[in-house]
Amino acid sequence: MTSGIRAPSFDVVVIGGSQAGLAVGYHLAKRGLRFVILDSGPEIGHVWRSRWDSLTLFTPAQYSGLPAMAFPLPKDTYP
Fold it and tell me: Residue ranges of the domains in the chain?
């Protein structure tokens, strides 16, 4: 007997919702693919929020953004 409920179908499953996983999701969406991003944390960036009391990136702001979403600090500053 079947319940009649269909499981969701995806072209791609991305494991990890950090910067790289979100960037991959952006490019998959631009290509019109069906995808899901799975992460063990309850919210985006959970590991950064929970692992360190403070986080200072070691790359300048212009390299710390996501595709189509620049980091909101001046160029050559360190978040």
Answer: 10-41+56-79
